[in-house]
Fold this sequence. Notes:
383 residues; alpha+beta; conserved putative lor/sdh protein from methanococcus maripaludis s2 fold; Elongation Factor Tu (Ef-tu), domain 3
Amino acid sequence: MKIANSMKRIQWISAVLFLILGGCGQNQDGQSNETTGAEAVENKLTLNEDQIKQIGLTLGHTEVKVVPDLIRANGMLDVPPQNLVSITAPLGGIVHETHLLQGTKVKKGEVLVTLKDPTYIQLQQEFLETESLLKFSSLELERQELLAKENINAQKTLQQARNDQAQAAAKHQGLAARLRLIGVEPEELKKSGIQETLNIQSPISGFVTQVHINLGSYVTPQQELFRIVDTEHLHAEIQVFEKDVLKIKVGQLIRLRLVDEEKERSAKVYLIGKEISEERTVRVHGHFEKHQEDLLPGMFFSAIIEAGESKFPTLPEQAFASFEENDYVFVSEGKNVFEMVHVNKGPCANGFCSFSSDQDLSAKEVVFKGTYELLGLLKNTGE
């Protein structure tokens, strides 16, 4: 789009200049002037006095000004690892009940899916049996210890009682831990009895982004059932080129704009990565100033990081002309000769733009007004 607009503008200016300057080749008596038109050699253009007046060229010098140091980059929205959860089943089972769809909002502790399998019943049964066995072995150990004090029983009998009680306690602890792993509290089981189903609860509050099951399907412990994301801590991951990293500081303002979005969103630099990627970029982590409910992880954006202010050589905005994705200015070489010079246009403020160039333009006169007209004449004459 930038190239097309530049070409259209140059073509329009060239047509206007052709009409305006076409008459400069003859005087009032119909005789030809010595300088009949613009002459172009490589990137230099020579005009006569009439052409300069017709275009209305004005010249000036570069001026050092304080300009915002803006770093442009791209990135993608993301969430911290603790805010993106894959839900799996601790034990395999058949999906008995679920109500979730993609986009469903869930709360921490809410039941996501109910599973059924004989394994759940067997595990609870073993725990209750071990609970009873542990009570019996503990009582038997107490009895054998009392008999041992009276030297009534053999030492071997006491040792066997202690071994039985230790084995029962270890099995009891292991089964209790397995129950807690699948979401069953042992104390609640002893009160309410065996449950036929297993409820899997959400560990965080957020939105369901992926659903991989349906009623009646059998799931395994390795299978992902749901994926839940908490967008409350959504952040901006920005890829900044290494040449700009040293300018970035924690707390600097970031202006974000999503693809095909007009409005800007504000964030601040929170963390700066310590590793350079193969693309010679460093990851900068930004936090939004306000919670963004309408945004989702994975969205791409363009960003401008305000890295303070610096002094740069500047020129008025109209001194620059764009052509084929490059920016140019024209400098005076004396005797109505103007040279087109490639520059790297930087941030603009209050009608002035910073720039950098391979040439030192501080002592040269630069065209302030008429840059696009000169560009049109240069390209038209060259053709």
